Amino acid sequence: MTIAPTVPPGQSERTDGARSGRLGALLRLRELPVTLALIALVVITTIANPLFLSPQGMKDLLLNATIVMILAVGQALVIITRNVDLSVGSILGLVAFGTGTLFANVPGIPIVVVFVVGMLLGAFLGAINGILVTVAKVPALVITLGTLYIYRGINNSWAGGTQYFAGDRPEAFGSLSVDTVFGFPLITLIAVVVIAIVAIYLNGVRAGRDLYAIGSDPDAALLFGIPVSRRVLLAFLFNGILAGLAGVLYASRFNSVGATTGTGLELSVVAAAVVGGVAISGGSGSVVGAAIGALLLTTITSALTAVRVDKFWQQAIVGMLILSAVIIDRIASVRTARKLRISEARDV
Question: With 80 as the cut, is the pLDDT of residue 139 above it?
Fold first, then answer.
């Protein structure tokens, strides 16, 4: 005789509730829409052009996205605090040209030293942005728009008509963009490590979690004892470090660096972060989402090129994605605020 196991009253309901809760949490992830869009884009493009997902095609996709991914991670830190940094393209350009200068004028310089110098230069330039924003109390949009042109002007004056090419750098440095590990380019693996470290910082370290509080309500964060100015300054500093790292990797990835290196890149970086679910109004989003947004935007360009779509439509589609991301974020914010008001009314 077999005795059927008995289920305590209410346990089945609790189990179903837990499952529906987990499903609801999954569906509410800000990274989910951009991830699904990326998957759909890859599948559709592969059907149209089977060579799109060839080993070389995959390598090119990752290489094209790596620099923007690192920059988008740093930009996410700043946007979460309700700020923005438009100077990252100019910082990258300065560091990239500085990298070429080091290799050309200091023979035998260790590659590790070049990385350290590039990140320190990026940190210095990012700190200038942070100090101006926190001390002058001027909107970051205005400050970094100004430093964008200042840093670009410095690079133009420094570089002039000089360019450094692949032959001016050590072979081992250029190999960072050529060599792979299990099919993944080395510089992409560097980007993955960066994403993991920053994600842990944002979610597992109090200083990182404070950035969300600042972005949600700076005045309330100040009342709760959060050092708002210091945290915002650190966000700009870390963003500068990552822009410096991206500048060094840019010099490894591309055949030449000069006065115009990085021009216009800041717009793609901000777009990647916003499309990846980082709210432009601050207080929400993740660096993982920003990285996926960067991968989506670069994949769109590659996909449309693979199916021979005009470049104008590539830019138009990216613009529509940005608008869609902002509209979706606004709708989600309104719905959340409405639910909060209803909940407060019920409690009263």
Answer: yes
